[in-house]
Amino acid sequence: MEQPEYPPQPAAPSRYLASLIDAALQAHQAGRFDAAEPLYREALSLDPRQPKALHYFGVLQHQRGHHAIAAGLIGEALEIDATDAVCWSHRGLVAAALGHLDEAILCYDHALQRQPDFADARNNLGVALQARGSLEAAVAQYRLALASHPTLADAHLNLGTALGKLGRYDEALVCYRDALTLDPHSAQAHFNAGNAFNALGDHVAARASFEQALALRPDYAEAQVNLGSLIGKLGDYAGAESHYRRAVALQPNPTHLVCLGGSLGAQGRLDEEEGFYRRALALDPHYADAHQNLAWLLLKRGDYRHGWAEFAQRWRKNDYAALAIPGVPEWRGEPLAGRRLLLVGEQGFGDHFQFLRFASVLAARGAQVELQVREPLLPLVTRIPGVHRAFSGQPDGHYDFWVPMMSVPSCIGMELSTIPADLPYMFADEEKVKSWRRKTGASPKGAPPEGAPPEGAPPESQRKVGLVWAGSPTFGNDRYRSIALADLSPLSELKNIAWYALQKGPAHAQLAHAPAAFREHDFTEALNSFEDTAALIMNLDLVISVDTGVAHLAAALGKPVWVLLPANSDWRWLEHRDDSPWYPGMRLFRQKALGHWGPLAHEVAAALQNNA
C-alpha cells in the first residue's frame, strides 16, 4: 500500500514558516485565493500569533466578502504588532466594508501617524470621509495622497468624484483626464467623465464617454443605464430601451427594471411597462420609484382606486424628509372637524394649480386649512375658497395634521367619477384684471366697451386667444411636450383670432421670427408673476397651451382651455379622451405620432374656425 508523500522536514521551523507565508502571498497576489488559503492556515497552525499570516489571511477573507472574520484576523495582527501602517490601513478597509465609517477613519489615522506619506491610506481616508458626506475634507485627503503619489490613478478618480458631487464638474473632468493619462483603459474614468459632461450639458461628449466605457467593459451595467438615460432624455426612447435591457440582463435590480419600464411607457407600450414595475416591487416592496411609475400608469388608465394607493408610496426617504413637518402626524384620512391642517405643496407649478382644489374639500370636512406653497404662488392662492392662510417657508405654530397636496386623493378615496371639479376655484386680483382690460381693450361679457379702445387693440369681433407653446426645458419630457412656434403657423393664418403670447422663458425668443399675427399682442414683459398672468387670462376668450402650468392656471380660473398633448402624454390626461374630468369644458388635442405636431396644428386651426 502506497504511503502519502509529505513535505520534507525543514531544518529550522522558522525558515519553513517563512517559506509558507511567502508562498501564500505569491498565490494571493496572483489572485489564486484557493491556493493561498491552505498555506495561510498551515502557517497559523504552526504559529497562531504570526502577524503577517494573520494580516494577509484577513485581507483574503475581506476580498471574499467575509468582513467580520477579516476584522478579527487583522485585529489580532494589530494586537501583536501595532506599528504596521499597512495593516492599519487594511483594517480601515474592513471597517468601511462593515459600514463602520468612524472606525475606518480612526484606523486610517493610525496608519498615517505611522507613515504620513502613505498615499493609499490617504486615498482610503478620503473615500471614508466622502461616504460620510464630508466632501471638502475628502478632497483635501485625495490631494495629499496625490502629492505623495502623483501616479495613483484611484486618487485621481476619487478626487474627480468628490468634486463632481460638489458641482465642480470642470475640475472633475481634469481629474478624469489625469486618470486616463495614467490608465487609458479605465472604463470607470470614461464613465465618470460621461457623468460630468452630462451634468455640464455636453451630451455629445457624455455619450462618447459612456460608449468608450462600454467598449472597454461591455458588462458595465451602470454605463448601460446612464447611456440609456442620456439618449432617452434626448428623445430616443427605443435606444434607451436597448441599453436598459442590457443592464437588466446584467443586473436585474429594481432600479434597472424601473428604467426599462419607463422607456417602454414613453413609447406608449403600457402593457409591457407594467410588468417591469411589478418585478421591481417583488424584489423590493418599498422601492419608491417603482410605486410612483406604477401609480402613473394606473392613473393614466383611469384606475384611480389602485393608482392613488400606489402614489401614496411614492416617496424617496430624502424627498419625504424635506417635505415632512417634524412632530406633526401626516393626515391619513382621520376626522378633521375642528382640526388645524397644513396642506403642503409639492412638485411643479402645474401640480400645485391642479391640486389646490383640495383646500376647499378639506375645509368642507371641518378643517382649518393652511397652505405651504412656493413663494411665486403667493398671494394668488390666498383667494382660494377654504384657505385660512397661505405662506412660503417654514411653518410656525401648532398643527394637528399635515398632508402633501398630491396625497389627498388617496386619503379621501377619490375615484375618477368623484374628482372635485367645481370651477373656478382660483381667482385673479380684480384690480389687475381691470388694468389688463384697459390694456387689451377687452370688455366684460355682455357689457359695452369701456371708453375708446387702446391703440392696437383687436376689434371686438375677434376672439382673444392666449398661446403657450413650450414648457420648462428642465422637464424630462420637454423635448416632446413643447412645440416649435413655427409648427403652429397654420393658426396664424386665421382671420378671426387675435393672438396673445403668454410664453415666458427661453422659447419666447421664437416669437421674433414668427408670423406677424403671433407677434401683434405680446405683453409678456409685463407678466412678472402668476398674478399678472391670471389677470391677463381673465381678459381672454380662450387659452391654447401645451401641457404646462399656464394650462392648469387658466383652467382653474374657469377659462376655456385647449391643451395640445404629445403622443406620450402625462398620466393626468388619461388615455384617448378629448376631455378632462379634472377641468369640465377643457378640450384635449392629441398627437397621433410622437414628435409630429403639423397634423395637430391643422386640427386645432379647423376647430377654431368651426367654433368662431
Explain what the structure shows:
The protein is an alpha/beta fold. Among the domains are: 218-318, Serine Threonine Protein Phosphatase 5, Tetratricopeptide repeat (Alpha Horseshoe); 324-418, Rossmann fold; 440-610, 3-Layer(aba) Sandwich (Rossmann fold), CATH 3.40.50.2000. 52% of the residues lie in helices and 8% in strands. Strands 7-6-5-8-9-10 form a six-stranded parallel sheet. A four-stranded parallel sheet has the order 3-2-1-4, with helices on one face. Strand 6 (497-501), helix 26 (516-519) and strand 7 (521-522) form a beta-alpha-beta unit. The longest helix has 17 residues, at 13-29. The chain is elongated and about 105 Å long. The N and C termini lie far apart (110 Å). Residues 1-12 have low confidence and may be disordered.
Q: What does the secondary structure layout of this molecule look like, with pairings?
A:
Blueprint: H1 13-29, H2 33-46, H3 51-63, H4 67-80, H5 85-97, H6 101-114, H7 119-131, H8 135-148, H9 153-165, H10 169-182, H11 187-199, H12 203-216, H13 221-233, H14 237-250, H15 254-266, H16 270-283, H17 288-300, H18 304-311, H19 317-323, E1 340-344, H20 349-355, H21 358-364, E2 368-372, E3 387-391, E4 401-404, H22 408-412, H23 430-440, E5 463-468, H24 478-481, H25 489-492, E6 497-501, H26 516-519, E7 521-522, H27 530-537, E8 542-546, H28 549-556, E9 561-565, E10 587-590, H29 598-610
Parallel strand pairs: 1-2, 1-4, 2-3, 5-6, 5-8, 6-7, 8-9, 9-10
Helix pairs in contact: 1-2, 2-3, 3-4, 4-5, 5-6, 5-7, 6-7, 7-8, 7-9, 8-9, 9-10, 9-11, 10-11, 11-12, 12-13, 13-14, 14-15, 15-16, 15-17, 16-17, 17-18, 20-28, 23-27
